[in-house]
Automatic annotation (TrEMBL), chain A:
Alphabetized SUPFAM superfamilies for the sequence: Adenine nucleotide alpha hydrolases-like (SSF52402)
All copies of domain Electron transfer flavoprotein alpha/beta-subunit N-terminal, residue ranges: 23-215
InterPro entries documented for this protein: ETF_a/b_N, ETF_b, ETF_beta_N, Rossmann-like_a/b/a_fold
Pfam families with a match to the protein in the record: ETF (PF01012)
Keyword set, alphabetical order: Electron transport, Transport
Protein name, entry field: Electron transfer flavoprotein subunit beta
From TrEMBL, chain B:
Family matches, as Gene3D superfamilies: HUPs, TPP-binding domain
The family this protein is said to belong to: Belongs to the ETF alpha-subunit/FixB family.
PROSITE patterns linked to this entry: ETF_ALPHA
Superkingdom of origin organism: Bacteria
Official protein name in the record: Electron transfer flavoprotein subunit alpha/FixB family protein
Domain Electron transfer flavoprotein alpha/beta-subunit N-terminal: 3-176
Pfam families, alphabetized: ETF, ETF_alpha
UniProt KW keywords: Electron transport, FAD, Flavoprotein, Transport
SMART domains attached to this UniProt entry: ETF (SM00893)
UniProt cross-references to InterPro entries, sorted A to Z: DHS-like_NAD/FAD-binding_dom, ETF_a/b_N, ETF_a/FixB, ETF_asu_C, ETF_asu_C_CS, Rossmann-like_a/b/a_fold
Signal peptide span: none
Keyword match ATP-binding: no
């Protein structure tokens, strides 16, 4: 069996974001980067599938971006992926989901992956498009938003998360692509021996121009911080003082304080 | 401008998101037609053309077939926009339709600003306007972002739609109902919610104590539930419960868009957060800049004394 996991490196969401000089993206300087949280679940599920099948399958982990994405790839290798592919692109933030999906599909096209794992969305763009679009481009079966994954005899039994705590169960024959929701599993921490082992694993570099033949289908016009709805009262300072002022406001403005 | 709205039903019930699409299309100023895989009894009460495919024949969840049904409606209607709810149904189906039509998709539109589609990114810390490059585009619309205010009493003109593709490789097995609820947040007048900012499981008790002092229920954001700190029935947000209490107190919650969508209709919102700029401040009537673990016991004490 052949497994592919697609991961993205994203800024730490606790960062303070600044708009860049051209006003169409965030300034990438001074940001700390990490593996997209959803993709950690994708990596873990791929490794669990490999273990279930007696460590026979080979897992390729792929990421698109500048050399910094090597850090995310190394983490995935240390979690148990076998080899890594960096699609080299210093301008990946400006690629739209359609282009990103086409890059992945072009890479995967002739490699006969049986199961492809992606996160259900990225923490920065959150478009929830790339995984499903890759499946469409490859003609693979696809289920999105997984909170449960089982594999037996060429069929994935996927538990999808719907709204309000309801889930649905779907059987998906391979070749299949699944997109992973938070809480699907418990992503492992790489152990020191596995981090050392990961350093010896293969990292293949592929120039983006060799895979991307598509123009962007959408473009960012302008990026900005949310406009404050205004009128919100801000309380700062001494805790006892804040508590008194807050209770005063609640007595005045709500009907629930007796 | 023409918009084809892809409505959504589950187990014989039309979902309200279908009407939110109508509200969004009104904001766009678009002429509307609808498509639904369902039954005529659930048809949205909107005076517009409705392409109806029989759910008994095409299945409740068989996205390959639903994709061909939407594409068939697109070919008949020739819309500028094909619009889905940004839901587990919509975000699963929309990219399949966009890829088949080879058009761009803009996901989770939250607003229309100067005629441009606005979306949120980085946990709601930033916004951007996005333009599709081609003449036609697929959009998904954030749940709760566009409220349908008008009367829901129009009569649709129903046209049955059939496709030649008959079978699905995916096999829908069934639904699994939500876990039994420990709490019913939908009925609570006061909800005090814990977010990732409380730091660890043991600290949730501090927030639970504050909820008790307020005479309210304990809520939580998704990361707190995923980490196993509290049960799922406490979760507020699009994948948990949508709530509108008289008072909502968000403790250490940054305000991810999925959480905001679940609580922003509360009558009065207090956010307690160390970061004054956290996106939750956008929704808050009162933004308290403080370490909630220090403030909560002080506040609880004063409430008990009052």
């Amino acid at each position: 069996m052949n497994i592919l996991v697609c991961i993205k490196q994203v800024p730490d969401m606790e960062s303070r974001f600044k708009v860049n000089g051209t006003g169409d993206w965030y300034d990438e300087a001074d940001l700390a980067y990490r593996m997209n949280e959803y993709d950690e679940y994708a990596v873990e599920q791929a490794v669990q599938l490999k273990e279930q099948l007696g460590n026979q399958p080979e897992i390729t982990v792929l990421s698109i971006g500048a050399d910094r994405v090597g850090e995310a790839l190394k983490k995935a290798l240390a979690m148990g992926c076998d080899k890594a592919v960096q699609v080299q692109d210093n301008d990946s933030a400006r690629k739209d989901p359609w282009q990103i999906a086409n890059i992945i599909a072009a890479y995967a096209g002739d490699k006969n992956f049986d199961v492809i794992f992606t996160g259900m969305q990225s923490q920065d763009r959150g478009s929830a498009q790339v995984g499903v679009t890759v499946a469409e481009l490859l003609g693979h079966n696809c289920a999105s938003t997984l909170v449960g994954f089982e594999y037996a005899d060429g069929v994935v039994t996927a538990k999808r998360e719907l709204e309000g705590g309801v889930k649905s169960v779907v059987k998906v024959p391979v070749p299949a692509l699944v997109t992973c929701q938070l809480g699907l599993n418990v992503p492992r921490y790489p152990t020191l021996p596995n981090i050392m082992k990961a350093k010896k694993k293969e990292l293949q570099l592929v120039p983006v121009a060799s895979l991307l033949k598509e123009e962007a289908a959408t473009g960012t016009e302008k990026l900005y911080p949310p406009v404050k709805s205004g009128g919100g009262i801000v309380l700062e300072g001494d805790l006892g003082d804040i508590a008194d002022r807050l209770l005063g406001i609640l007595k005045e403005k709500t009907t629930v304080m007796k | 401008m023409k918009a084809l709205l892809v409505c959504e039903q589950r187990e014989g019930k039309l979902l309200d998101t279908s009407y939110e699409l109508v509200a969004f299309a009104e904001r766009l100023g678009a002429e509307v037609s609808l498509v639904l895989v369902g039954k005529e009894a659930q048809a949205p009460q909107v005076a517009a053309k409705l392409y109806l495919a029989d759910v008994d024949k095409y299945g409740e969840y068989s996205p390959e077939l639903h994709k061909h049904i939407v594409v068939a409606a697109v070919l008949k209607e020739n819309p500028d926009y094909i619009i889905f709810p940004h839901s587990s149904y919509g975000w699963d189906l929309a990219p399949r339709v966009a890829a088949t039509l080879r058009v761009g998709q803009v996901s989770e539109v939250v607003n229309i600003v100067d005629g441009k589609l606005e979306v949120s990114l980085c946990n709601g810390k930033l916004r951007r306007t996005v333009s599709p490059k081609g003449a036609r585009a697929v959009l998904t619309v954030q749940a709760g972002a566009f409220n349908y205010a008008g009367q829901q009493s129009g009569a649709p003109q129903v046209e049955a739609i059939e496709i030649s593709q008959g079978s699905s490789a995916l096999q829908f097995v069934g639904y699994e109902p939500a876990e039994k609820k420990e709490v019913d947040l939908g009925r609570a007048e006061i909800i005090v919610s814990a977010g990732r900012g409380v730091g660890k499981k043991e600290n949730v008790a501090v927030i639970a104590e504050l909820a008790k002092a307020f005479g309210g229920e304990l809520g939580a954001s998704r990361p707190v539930v995923d980490a196993g700190w509290v049960g799922h029935s406490h979760q507020v947000g699009t994948t948990g419960q949508t709530v509108s209490p008289k008072l909502y107190v968000a403790c250490g919650i940054s305000g991810a868009i999925q959480h905001l969508a679940g609580m922003k209709k509360s009558d009065f919102i207090v956010a307690i957060n160390k970061d004054k700029e956290a996106p939750i401040s956008e929704a808050a009537d009162v933004m308290v800049v403080a370490d909630v673990l220090q403030l909560a016991p002080v506040l609880a004490e004063k409430l008990r004394a009052a």
